[in-house]
Request: fold
Amino acid sequence: MTAAPKPESWVRVLPEGLYVDPGGFFIDPPRAVDRAVISHGHADHARPHHGHVLATPETLAIMRQRYGANAGAAQQALACGETLRVGAVDVRLVPAGHVLGSAQVVLDYDGSRVVVSGDYKRSPDPTCAPFEPVPCDVFVTEATFGLPVFRHPPVAAELDKLLRSLALFPERAHVVGVYALGKCQRLIALLREAGHDRPIYLHGALKGLCDLYERQGVALGPLEPATVAGGGREAREKFRGAVVLAPPSAIADRWSRRLPDPVVAAASGWMRVRQRARQRGVELPMVISDHADWDELIATIEETGAPEIWVTHGREEALVLQAGKLGRRARALALVGREEEDDAG
Amino acid sequence: MKAFAALIDGLVFMPSRNGKLRLMADYFARAPDPDRGWALAALTEGLSFPAAKAGLIRALAAERVDPALFAWSYDYVGDLAETVSLIWPERPTGAPPPALGEVVERLQAARRMEVPGLIEGWLDALGASERFALLKLITGGLRVGVSARLAKTALAGFGGREVAEIEELWHGLAPPYRALFAWLEGHGGRPETRDAATFRPLMLATPLEEGDLDGLDPAAYRAEWKWDGIRVQLAACGGRRRLFSRTGDEIGGAFPEIVDAMSFEAVLDGELLVARPETRGGDVEIAPFNRLQQRLNRKTVTAKMLADDPAWVRLYDILVEDGEDIRPLPFDRRRARLEAWYGRTRPGRMDLSPLVPFDDWSTLADIRAGARANAIEGLMLKRGDSPYVAGRPKGPWFKWKRGPLLLDVVLMYAQRGHGKRSSFYSDFTFGAWRPDGRGGDELVPVGKAYFGFTDEELGRLDRWVRNHTVERYGPVRAVSPELVLEVAFDSVHRSTRHKSGVAMRFPRVHRIRWDKPASEADRLATLEAMIVD
Ligand SMILES: [Zn+2]
Ligand SMILES: [Zn+2]
Reply:
């Protein structure tokens, strides 16, 4: 019996991105390539113009919604749990719990297993399947919140901040900054779970993906466009005490000033640090993240049992240090094309 | 601790004053005693825990967190209390999270060596937001953008009372203010305070506007100087003595000589100054405002400060005499009581602010224009029949600020401005004439002005500068000495840092004298004569 190949001999960092040699494909490449496996629909992972795309059916639907004809010349769906042989590699997609359709990419080659996490979280999310840890030789983990100060509080308590504010300021609109894919729908679903059954108003940029979620079977309740067009004072009255969702860039902008005395809120893991929230003009920060926090990153590393950890996508240095203290061989994967915070925190 | 932490977080992020008031009132309505009382004390800066310092917090964190991880985190977060609150790796002890009241009371009772253990236990028992509130609370300085006054305003709103009523009671009460909350909630009487040396909210004057005088009967008003110090209230009742700022903050600690001199039973309104009584002719010599300012923000006072910059109070009014509240009396009656009281009592370090007699408004305008003492900010007009009421009612009291000092000077240098003015020469250095020692005259810079002109004038000045440049030093141009500016300023002081030996306070361009020859501009000696240090 021959020893399994060393992982770094078959999964490598090339200028185009993380490359799986025996399969001839990249995972989440930041540039257009011939063959790509895509973990989920966020723009820093799913780029347009690839020749051949392999992803979950939900992720492919999201890419088509975003990129239309540029979503990939050939698209191949692989449902979570199923295995597909690509070249000499077995590829399996396993839920990552990040957004609808998000998946870890499990790669088996000649007795060696590498799991690329994509983005993931461990806290429950009514809009997507939960993360499943997969034992492996190398776990390639994200590190968006890879500092020990990032410890997300329970979601219920964060949501309660919004509900309390709605009760305290019933005459004010509550504009919540959310990322269009994932956070938006998760927040709506959480509000519905908490019994909030009023219409929720959406900035135009959020509608398409909400519709897509509904088509994929995620019920979101009554949603209405947050337009004041055609109406004067009365048209604005409906926003009093209402939840209005908008992309983060719109909440402290002219767009939200049309609403009655808006309370500017945001739902993001970055809201954990007060100064960050204040810089963005947020007066009601909710620490609701679709990424693993520090404790979840550590717990996941331990659960996978992987002796080797590759850290990418965020603050690598702290997590590398901590994984080392846990007895793992850990290193940072220097992938290009990712800026801090351009991802859906 | 949870509700208090939510309040702190809410206040940190709430930009509007009204929103802050609402958050505080909501908290007072929901939180139980004594927590809300301690929270009120924290918001009004009435709490301090000398044994809990930032260094102690840092040391506690260092015992549990890898130094590199802590350094990276602190670097990212930028605030020690917040970093520790977020990073703290709890070791669940099973102890229930402490209430705010428990934290305060146990810290106050603890011996110094017990403090680290207490804090460590609480950090383990609390969540991140509560840890943040705890650390901010005990290390002092909540920094949530709430003044003591705003907290009291919220309290007044919560209880449906006037903030003046709260202020009057305030210094007779102590945290956790149970009786106060009971009264505000309507299930207790107005708190009896045996301590009568509390703050009585000040009566304030409205600025006199153009044309106001036309409608006023000079015979109904009294005039007195408005001194350039800080307005204070002296309260000495039943053995307690307090010196209050105009907002009701106690500042007696910084001015012990005044507190020492308050051996009487009265509440007085006056102006705090730095002044020496022992000068020739017996006149009180008042020092410039900046000398007072140097003493203002000190917690402790040195003997040298007491000797160099002794404090003085110039009395305007009497509110309480021997336990009798005479605020409802008309001003004239109170003034008579003040004069009689002063004649009997002769307190040290105080004198009466004299009334300024006048027959009609034009006489008074002349008197005002002639006032050159730096210590005079202007005139106060008070109706003879006005009772002393809290706040700023329009009509009974006016302040008539002194017109600025004026000087004709010559433009010497111009520098590009900042921001939207960065393409214009908009910072102007100007000079006055003095003998050059060789039988002629020379200009010496006496000040710098950045504003006081319209955009149109700025454009014209800018062109003038470009056409009259004689030399350039980087962003600065020296211009030929031809243009006269009439500058206005509040006062002038001696200064060793300026070549001219004088420094103006708030100089601004009043008029551009395109018409006036530079040789007719003012001389340094004229400016020096305006110094009344
Ligand atoms: Zn993502
Ligand atoms: Zn990402």
Summary: The domain at 405-528 of chain B is CATH 2.40.50.140 (OB fold (Dihydrolipoamide Acetyltransferase, E2P)).
